[in-house]
Amino acid sequence: MLRKARRWTAAAVLGTLLAGCGTTAADGEGAGKGGAGDGPATDLTVRPIAAARTVTDGKGVTVTTAAPPKRIVCLVALCDDMLAELGMVPAATNSALLSHEKFLGKEKAAKIPVVPGGFLSPETEAILSYRPDLVIGLEDTHGKLAPALKGATVFWPLQPGNWQDSVGYLRDLAALTGRTEQGEAAEKAFRAKLAAAEKSRSDRTALIIFGSDENFGVATPGNDVTAGLMPKIADYPWKSRGVEGTYSMEEILAREVDVLFVETLSFGGPAAPGERLSDKLAKNPLWSKIPAVRNGRVHEVDAEVWAKGRGTRSLGIVLDEAAAALR
Q1: Can you tell me the distance from the alpha carbon of 149 to that of 116, in angstroms, rounded to the nearest whole number?
Q2: 314 with 97: CB under 8 angstroms?
Q3: How deeply is 118 buried, as exposed, middle or buried, from its count of CB atoms within 10 A (0-12, 13-18, 19+)?
Q4: β-strand pairing of 259-264 with 216-218
Q5: Torsion over CA of 98, 104, 105 and 106, rounded to 10 degrees?
Q6: Smallest Cα–Cα separation from 318: which of 136, 97, 157?
Q7: Residue 151 to residue 142: CA distance in whole angstroms
Q8: pLDDT tens profile 63-106
């Protein structure tokens, strides 16, 4: 269940258990799916975004709104991230991402209604009670809501696999909302940050692990948006082994990991000391032998940003924090 979950938890809470407005060809798929960091450099070009009533996203999903959507309900954190970049707030959300200090902060975020039912089972009646003109969710989790929402609002299912997808979704939402300048500015800032990070790429071996107890998973490019950035900024030799595949502690030890990023998946905010994933993994005798652990280079990161955000603002925070840790 945990292995399947990381794909959902990039936009979920603990217990689950991850056309014209798209990205440029110069970004290349290789840059977002792992490798030795020798993929094409990030293109700094940002094409103009035109306001539109209909967009077709990079996954082939066509979305049409009668007017620029203003009341947007977010069922996935990527939606909250995009709205923040466009200078908007959701009519309701089921993510805690906006509480982060680089988004709205706890006080302002607390004023936004929370969709009942949680990430896996948001209540349809509650969603419609917020009078949304657009509902944005995760396709493999919220796609089942589409029939119930049809005719009452517009539903847009997202399924990002890499940062290029996230940028494409941002451009599409900027076109629909008419916030084209904000969308272009956000894309430009992210591309510049990623390009700068590439130029100062570390030769340290890094690893992102996630979980809630001694059972853990490894975030890999191709399956995880955040992990897809890592080969561009560090030695990241971890590749997807499919839904049922994982890495053992013995394999991690053999890789001589220099820097560990740990995402503790928990309810109700950050886990307390002693309840974090790194604390629980410390019970494993092999844990203390990993170079990153021996040298004090284990970093418990904010899972709301690292695992769930997946938008340009969240990924920019990841780049900043990862670069500092990899020095």
Answers
A1: 16
A2: yes
A3: middle
A4: unpaired
A5: -60
A6: 97
A7: 17
A8: 999 999 999 999 999 999 999 999 999 999 999 999 999 999 99
**What's the sign of the alpha-carbon dihedral 59, 63, 69, 73?**
negative
Provide the terminal-to-terminal Cα distance of the chain, rounded to the nearest Å. 35
Only one residue has tokens 């410390």, namely: 282
- Find out whether 308 and 166 touch, Cβ atoms under 8 Å: no
Span 59-63, mean pLDDT? Answer: 97
d(CA 325, CA 318): 10
At residue 18 the predicted structure's pLDDT band, cuts being 50, 70 and 90, is very low
Strands 72-74, 54-56: pairing kind: unpaired
Query: C-alpha 29: how far from its chain's center?
Result: 17
Per DSSP bridges, beta strands 259-264 and 298-301 are parallel
| Cα dihedral across residues 141, 75, 312, 10: positive or negative | negative
Q: How far is the C-alpha of 244 from the C-alpha of 186, rounded, in Å?
A: 36
How many helices and strands in the chain, by DSSP H and E? 14, 10
pTM given for the model? 0.89
Q: Is the pLDDT of residue 9 over 70?
A: no
**3-state class of 208 per DSSP?**
strand
pLDDT reading at 142 higher than 80: yes
242-284: pLDDT as tens digits: 876 789 999 999 999 999 999 998 766 678 878 899 999 999 9
Are 224 and 10 in contact by the 8 Å Cβ rule? The answer is yes
| pLDDT(240) > 60 | yes
More confident: 16 or 314: 314
Query: What is the C-alpha separation between 97 and 303, in angstroms, rounded?
Result: 9
CA distances from 281 to 2, 3, 285, 287, 310 (A): 15, 17, 9, 7, 26
Cα 309 to Cα 125: distance, rounded to the nearest angstrom: 25
Nearest Cα to 32, choosing from 224, 202, 306, 234? 224
